[in-house]
């Protein structure tokens, strides 16, 4: 059974005036929101939602970067199409392109391997370990010493939790280091692709419609989790059997209407709601514009290097999709910052807090807390400039592989408990999976072009951004081609053969990229150690700031929830339209007729012919909405989401699956930094469209029979 963890006194009784649409809540916080849940119409008891061993939370899972949920007792998992994209691409070739064709396994035997990077995590236990992480830390420690001591304690907590190798454990911080929770997850390593519609459905609208509304995207797919015959996670094998999921979500085809309440559960990635005004201005004025320019340039190089080769384009499809998604989100943040001066809003809030804090007369902590904080933030931002420059200079998949391999050799000289996180024995399978997966998204000529162009961009960056000692070690852009002719790391078997070799083997190697990785190691370690010094000092000061800020918000009756950190969260709200600008009102539903209107016959608005015929023939059956008179495709809600929430279950008031989260409106992108309830909307695929496509277009009757579906009453 999962323990119910009480919040610190400072965090209790602060939710009375919480707004239904704001907040990415830890499940154990939900009983404090009982009145809000009841007010909007959620009928599931808050105490039940807070218990991860009970329905519906026990059916919510992570895929390591997206969210998902079990929808049958045989390990059937539903998530977004773009979340399964790696598995789809892995099984595609230029001759048999499942991205464009789609895929359906009519039998279990036909299901395809998702690959080593396709995993399912089932959270089954969490506990507050704040004291074990922070108790007794000396104020005399340097930032780096403090950082390394905290990491040592975290690694010990993880090792203690992972004595049974079927589990993967983590100890993330909450409220920027104020609290730590140990989370135990069952890690299922044999995950197979079951069904994905054609990208003409799953990505209809492509990058043009990304973050836009109205939207008409069938962003869904199915995976299945497999385990050994003993029921324990096992390496992929034909002998494995479907995982018997303890719980699964019932699917409701009854639908929603405007104003209906929804629950959304998943694993949101990162938000920055508690950043200071100086941090926002740095992102707005320097960091984000630089990143946008770099991503645009990198995409242009990939496009030029893959033009004329379908095979190369398929290999880089997932890479391009990922960069494009980050690019549009980052550009959306910049546009949002331009539309609303969030830094100025934060200035007012920060001034109010500082005035309140100073009136406390030191009762909440050090009188120098705020000046110490400002100085540390300034140092942090300066180092971020160097780290960005380093990321540009090292934009080569072969160089990244070589650096990983050499770092692994360096760390293996230490006892396992002393190794850097990410390079311990528990991480070997992940490192090998990344090195192996490279062959799916790598072409030497493309990587060479990307590295050459990246070095040219690096050379144009301000000198203050160049990490100390790096420039003399980097190859000249015109010399990059010679590196690719003098390396064997492009060969998967030879790349993997370096795993386990000692430091001397690397230092004696004639492989060009191995030699470059060895040469760059000291510079990268200097950057890393300076990061540890700053982070250690921030971790000393930021929690004091957050405790004071929480006390301040409590005094105002405002909601207090931790920033998202890829752990299980619940948000709730209503199906809702919005008005992004004066005179423009956007309704909460789109319908299949919109697909016909958008269809051009050319990517990305090229809908399948059988889909178009079914729409024109109005073969809607039980999936026809009685109000709309047709099949809804996507809908909007006021739920508080971010990256990582892709694939999150959208549930009705009874906890039944009615949709999948997959995006946000363009105006909502700044919600990662500031939540504006008037215009923030999440975009979901309506479960009725998903079921209709499965029945009318792809004939996925085997999956429709496997799921428990509640159809509308006649």
Summarize, please:
This protein is of the alpha+beta class and 714 residues long.
Averaged pLDDT, please?
94
Which stretches of 5+ consecutive residues score pLDDT under 50?
1-18
Give a quick account of the main beta sheet: strands, pairing sense, barrel closure.
Answer: 8 strands, antiparallel
Shape: globular
How big a fraction of the residues is strand? Answer: 5-15%
Gap between N and C termini:
41 Å
Give a description of the structure:
- The protein has 714 residues and is of the alpha+beta class.
- The chain has two domains: 55-119 and 189-340 and 576-714, no CATH class; 365-556, no CATH class.
- It is 40% helix and 15% strand.
- The protein contains 24 helices and 23 strands.
- Helix 9 packs antiparallel against helix 12 (342-359) and helix 13 packs across helix 16.
- It is globular and about 70 Å long.
- The two termini are 41 Å apart.
Give the topology:
Blueprint: H1 34-40, H2 46-49, E1 60-62, E2 67-70, E3 76-79, H3 85-90, H4 98-101, E4 103-104, E5 112-113, E6 120-128, H5 130-134, H6 143-161, E7 167-170, E8 173-174, E9 179-188, E10 190-196, H7 199-202, H8 206-209, E11 221-227, E12 241-242, E13 251-252, E14 261-266, H9 277-306, H10 310-315, H11 317-339, H12 342-359, H13 369-393, H14 397-411, H15 428-437, H16 444-459, H17 480-485, H18 492-496, H19 503-507, H20 512-556, E15 569-574, E16 578-581, E17 584-586, E18 589-591, H21 592-598, H22 609-616, E19 632-637, E20 649-651, E21 657-664, E22 682-686, H23 687-697, H24 701-706, E23 709-710
Helix pairs in contact: 6-20, 9-11, 9-12, 9-13, 9-16, 13-16, 13-20, 14-20
């Amino acid at each position: 059974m999962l323990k119910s963890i009480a919040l610190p006194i400072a965090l209790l009784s602060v939710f009375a005036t919480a707004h239904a649409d704001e907040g990415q809540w830890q499940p154990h916080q939900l009983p404090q929101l009982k009145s809000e849940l009841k007010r909007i119409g959620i009928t599931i008891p808050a105490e039940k939602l807070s218990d991860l061993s009970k329905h519906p939370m026990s059916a919510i899972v992570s895929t390591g970067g997206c969210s998902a949920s079990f929808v049958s007792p045989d390990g059937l998992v539903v998530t977004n199409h773009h979340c399964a994209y790696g598995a789809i691409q892995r099984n595609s070739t230029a001759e048999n392109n499942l991205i464009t064709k789609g895929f359906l396994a009519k039998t279990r035997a036909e299901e395809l391997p998702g690959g080593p990077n396709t995993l399912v995590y089932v959270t089954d236990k969490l506990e507050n370990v704040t004291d074990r992480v922070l108790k007794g830390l000396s104020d005399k420690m340097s930032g780096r010493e403090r950082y390394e001591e905290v990491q040592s304690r975290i690694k010990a907590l993880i090792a203690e939790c992972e004595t049974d190798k079927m589990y993967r454990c983590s100890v993330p911080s909450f409220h920027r280091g104020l609290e730590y929770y140990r989370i135990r997850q069952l890690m299922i390593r044999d995950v197979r692709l079951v069904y994905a519609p054609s990208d003409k459905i799953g990505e209809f609208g492509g990058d043009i419609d990304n973050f836009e509304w109205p939207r008409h995207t069938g962003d869904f797919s199915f995976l299945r989790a497999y385990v050994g015959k003993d029921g324990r996670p096992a390496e992929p094998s034909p002998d494995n059997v479907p995982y018997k999921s303890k719980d699964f979500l019932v699917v409701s085809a009854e639908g929603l209407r405007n104003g209906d309440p929804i629950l959304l559960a998943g694993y949101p990635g990162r938000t920055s709601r508690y950043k200071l005004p100086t941090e926002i201005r740095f992102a707005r004025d320097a960091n984000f514009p630089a990143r946008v320019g770099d991503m645009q340039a990198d995409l242009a190089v990939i496009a030029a290097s893959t033009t004329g080769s379908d095979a190369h384009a398929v290999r880089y499809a997932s890479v391009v999709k990922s960069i494009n998604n980050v690019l549009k989100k980052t550009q959306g943040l910049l546009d949002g910052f331009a539309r609303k001066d969030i830094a100025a809003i934060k200035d007012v809030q920060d001034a109010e807090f500082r005035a309140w804090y100073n009136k406390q007369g030191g009762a909440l902590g050090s009188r120098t807390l705020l000046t110490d904080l400002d100085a540390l933030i300034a140092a942090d931002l300066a180092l971020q400039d160097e780290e960005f420059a380093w990321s540009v200079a090292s934009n080569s998949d072969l160089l990244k592989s070589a650096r990983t391999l050499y770092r692994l050799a360096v760390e293996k000289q230490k006892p396992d408990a002393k190794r850097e996180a990410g390079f311990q024995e528990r991480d070997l399978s992940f490192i090998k999976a990344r090195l192996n997966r490279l062959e799916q998204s790598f072409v030497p000529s493309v990587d060479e072009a990307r590295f050459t162009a990246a070095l040219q961009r690096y050379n144009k960056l301000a000198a203050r951004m160049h990490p100390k000692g790096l420039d003399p070690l980097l190859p000249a852009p015109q010399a990059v081609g010679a590196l690719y002719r003098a390396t064997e790391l492009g060969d998967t078997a030879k790349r993997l053969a370096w795993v386990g070799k000692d430091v001397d083997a690397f230092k004696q190697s004639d492989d060009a990229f191995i030699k470059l990785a060895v040469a760059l190691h000291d510079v990268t370690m200097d950057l890393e150690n300076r990061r540890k010094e700053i982070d250690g000092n921030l971790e000393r000061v930021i929690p004091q700031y957050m405790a004071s800020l929480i006390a301040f918000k409590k005094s105002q009756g405002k909601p207090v929830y931790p920033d998202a950190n890829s752990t299980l969260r619940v948000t709730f709200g209503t199906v809702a339209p919005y008005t992004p600008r004066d005179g423009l009102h956007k309704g909460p539903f789109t319908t299949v007729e919109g697909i016909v209107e958008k269809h051009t016959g050319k990517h990305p608005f090229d809908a399948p012919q059988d889909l178009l015929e079914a729409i024109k023939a109005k073969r809607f059956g039980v999936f026809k909405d009685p109000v709309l008179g047709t099949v809804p495709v996507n809908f909007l809600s006021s739920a508080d989401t971010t990256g990582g929430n892709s694939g999150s279950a959208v549930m009705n008031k009874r906890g039944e699956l009615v949709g999948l989260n997959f995006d946000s409106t363009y105006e909502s992108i700044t919600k990662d930094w500031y939540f504006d309830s008037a215009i923030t909307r999440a975009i979901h695929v309506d479960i009725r469209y998903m079921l209709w496509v499965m029945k009318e277009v792809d004939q996925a009757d085997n999956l429709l029979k496997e799921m428990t579906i509640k159809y509308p009453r006649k």
